[in-house]
Design goal:
The complex is a heterodimer. By secondary structure, chain A is an all-alpha fold. The longest helix of chain A is centred in the last third of the chain and has 24 residues. Chain A is extended and about 55 Å long. Chain B is α+β, with helices and mostly antiparallel strands. Chain B is built from seven helices and seven strands, in the order αβαβαβαββαββαα. In chain B, β4 and β5 form a beta hairpin. The longest helix of chain B has 16 residues. The chains are: A mainly alpha, B alpha+beta. Chains A and B meet through α1 and α2 of A and α2, β6 and α7 of B.
Amino acid sequence: MDKQPDPEPDTRPPEYDENGVDVSLIRWMLTLTPLERLQLLQSNVNAILRVREYLERK
Amino acid sequence: MNILNESNFLGILRELAAAEIEFILVGSVSAVLQGAPLVTFDVDIVHSRTPDNVRKLLVVLEKLEARYRIRPDLSPSESHLVSRGHQLLSTKMGPLDLLGAIAQGEYEDLFPMSKIQELEPGLRVRVLNLAAYLREKEARPDPKDRAAAEILRRLLSERGEI
């Protein structure tokens, strides 16, 4: 059987509104559950803290 | 205690909920739960300042090893928590700000502007609704708050709420 081609990814650039707000990011956030949004925030904070810690050690 | 290298938003909310503390999540974490792509390092809550709630809150704060961020030698006390002031604390799970009142009022004033969000089975957190949080941001002159306000307005629009 022939292998099905992989689905095409969405390669469009982010969509910004007239105030510079990334609308595609908001729409993606709205697809997540509240817990997933909190976990995303925690992950972002942890990444920032790791970078900060690395820079302080340099 | 390093106030930033240990952070656990979910852990703080679990502790508050498990102790049946009456509070409203009001800061950027509340907006993130409702879909705002914002980043913050602390949990901001407005707590009910009734004697019973303050007593329960003090037990949780002791468990979290809460100290004032600028006075690590000082722990919050009952007299602090019954005031309208802002207690800016560090805990073993990260920064936690206890706000006696914000621009739109205290716990009882904000209650009608809040709603419940279920994070996981058994963990229900009361959050300030986005429109009210937007009004808080609009009341502040800081450019960072104005930028966040633009995001909140667009989010409300995407949700069909304005």
